[in-house]
Structure formats: C-alpha cells, structure tokens
Design a protein that fits this description.
2 domains, seven-stranded mixed β-sheet, 44% helix, alpha/beta, Rossmann fold
Length: 369
C-alpha cells in the first residue's frame, strides 16, 4: 500500500535519545514513527491503518476522539496531523501503557480520559469531528450499544478498523463440517453475522474477544445507529470502514424498545450541558428576582420577617422544579423542531409556576398562624 504524505513529518530525535532504554518495560501494541527513523516497537502499524480507513492527512481545526487509545500512538498522530484538540479514551492506566511517557517526551497536549465507550456522552466530552474506533469493536460484549454511544458524540466522521470473519474460519469444528453446509460466497456476504467467541477462542493469548462480525454486519450496525458507512479496505481477517453522521432512523427513535431510553439519555445529557441550563437559569432568575422583591416589600410594609424565610424556601423549590420539569420533559420534544427552545422554556415555567403555588400555600399558612 502506498502511504500518503502527511501534513507534518516526524521530528528528529532529541540529542542522546536511546530507543532501547526508552521503550523498555512497556507492552507496545502500536508501531508508530515517533521520531525520524525511530518507531514505537508494536505490531499494529499506525500509518497503514490510518491509510486503510482513509483518515485525512490534514486534520487542522478538528476535534478528535481516539476510542481505545492504549499506547496513544493514533492520538499523537492526529495531533501531528494538525488536530485542534485530541482526547484519548481508554480503560488502561496511561502510566503503564506508555502514554504518559510519550506525552511528556513529545510535549503533547493530548488529553487522556480514563473511561469506557459505553458511558461517553456529549454532556461530559462534547461532540467530535473525527472519532477513531480502531481494534475495539470485537472486544465489546455490547457492540451495538457502543455504536449508539459513538453516534451521540459524533458530529462528523468515524473511522473504524476491526476483526471480521469473512475470510476467517468461523464455524466450530471447521475441518469436520461438510463443505455443502458452509454458507458460500454471496449468501454469506449478504447476511449480517455476529459470531460469538468463547474465552481464548479467537486468540489463545487474549480472552477479551467477544464477537466476530462479518463486513455486512458492521455496515448495518452503523447504518441503524444513524451513520452512512462504506468499507474502505480489507486484508486477511481485518477490515476498515469510514462512516459519516446521518439521520437516526425512525425505527430506533420511535418503533422499538430502544425508543425511550436512548432518547431520554441523549436529551438529558444535552440539557445537562452548560448551554442547556441557560433555558432554566434565565427563567429562574426572572422568577427569583420578582419573588425576592415582593417578599422584601412585604417585610418592609407589613413587618412579617417570616416572608424572607419563605421566599428562600420557595426559590429552592422553584430551582429544582423548573430544572426537573425541563429535564424529564425534553425527550418528548421533537429534536429538530423550531419550537424546541420555546418548549424547554415552557417546561421551566411550568415547574416554576407549580412551585410558586406551593410557596403561596406556605405563605398563607404562615400568615394565618
């Protein structure tokens, strides 16, 4: 394969740099040209996989998420290609995988987040122009959930590389199975298959492999999550794909058991973001200002010190009521409706209104004592 030129070549090694001593003590999965002519001593070639998935040579201004970063070589490569911000997401301790070691050596600004693809959300990480999903899919027990979570934080493209079974013996007892019962050619290619693996079955030295999909299974999994996707390359039992954000199918949003929970989670996390809280804060500030002025006037005019205590109690109730009304109700608003913003304000007002009634009842009770 011919590797395209990148926007920035690897720099020269620092004076006195010793590869043998530097790379000692870490299990390196990835092979990357960290300095000119010096490679991180792993097996998975960063340049080859980026080319296979058609990762752009120029990522200037892009926000990038590297899922399953491990050593971090793909993250650092994206930074080298000009990405504005890169987040490396992985479960491992970065001090043990060599990530921290390379970040310090390179003077990198890549941020490491210790976490799972299952729990990523736009509320915590924001959204990304580019997501790398290399060598992760077949390690997941819940691959479709992971793809849904990728869709929730993607605003651009996802680049995928994974194990596939199209050219891999996947029937147990393969040598003993008569040839005529093995699905052949086009039939296998048209039928999505997720082949589950027992412990150490795919790789005798790795028990973390759960599923082996065929190519069409990968394509349809991403399509049903709201992506346009195409296969870009395949070799031996591996394949690469390039996916772009598209409309989430109505089947997922409205016509399955998945319709309530994913939408509820997506809009809750969206409303929990600082921008989303503005809907509530604006309404609550107006309410609280008026309520405080009224209470202050009552205290000044009628000498009822209980009013100040009541207004603070009312404000606290209003805060929670307005926020939770908008939070719980937002999933039922149409996501692309022009009335969504007004709807959130209305829900906040509804919460404030009911809390005001409660406050008035408390006030009447206090005055009657």
């Amino acid at each position: 394969m011919v590797i395209n030129k990148r926007t920035a070549a690897p720099p020269a090694a620092p004076l006195g740099f010793s590869p043998d001593s530097y790379f000692r003590g870490v299990h390196w999965h990835q092979r990357w040209e960290i300095f000119r002519g010096i490679f991180v001593p792993g097996q998975n070639r960063v340049d080859y996989l980026c080319e296979a998935a058609q990762l752009p040579a120029d990522l200037s201004g892009k926000r990038v998420l590297d899922v399953g970063a491990w050593n971090g070589c793909f993250s650092f490569e994206c930074e080298r290609r000009g990405a504005q911000e890169v987040i490396a997401l992985s479960l491992e301790n970065p001090a043990q995988t060599g990530f921290d070691r390379m970040k310090q050596l390179l003077g990198s600004k890549v941020r490491y987040v210790n976490g799972s693809v299952y729990t990523i959300s736009p509320g915590e990480l924001g959204t990304f122009d580019v997501i790398l999903f290399f060598g992760v899919l077949y390690h997941l027990r819940y691959p479709l959930l992971a793809i849904d979570r990728l869709r929730s934080v993607s605003r651009g493209e996802v680049f995928i590389e994974t194990h596939v079974i199209d050219q891999h013996p996947w029937l147990r007892g393969w040598p003993e199975v008569p040839e005529q019962v093995i699905p052949q050619g086009a039939a296998l290619q048209r039928t999505p298959i997720w082949r589950q693996y027992a412990e150490f079955e795919l790789n005798p030295g790795d028990q973390s492999n759960w599923f082996g999909p065929n190519v069409v299974a990968v394509l349809e999994a991403f399509q049903t999550a709201g992506f346009e996707i195409a296969q870009t390359q395949s070799w031996t039992n591996r394949a690469a794909f390039r996916a772009k954000v598209s409309t989430i199918p109505a089947r997922l949003l409205q016509h399955s058991y998945e319709s309530v929970s994913p939408r509820m989670h997506a809009y809750r996390t969206r409303f929990s973001m600082p921008q989303g809280r503005l809907y509530f804060v604006a309404v609550w500030l107006v309410y609280s200002s008026l309520a405080f002025l009224i209470a202050r006037w009552n205290v000044t005019s009628h000498q009822h010190p209980k009013d100040l205590r009541l207004v603070f109690a009312g404000l606290a109730v209003a805060a929670w009521a307005g926020y939770w009304f908008a939070l719980v109700g937002s999933p039922y608003l149409r996501p692309r409706s022009v009335y969504r913003h007004l709807g959130l304000v209305f829900l906040s007002l509804a919460g404030v209104f009911f809390s005001t009634l409660l406050w008035l009842l408390l006030a009447v009770k206090a005055y009657s004592e």
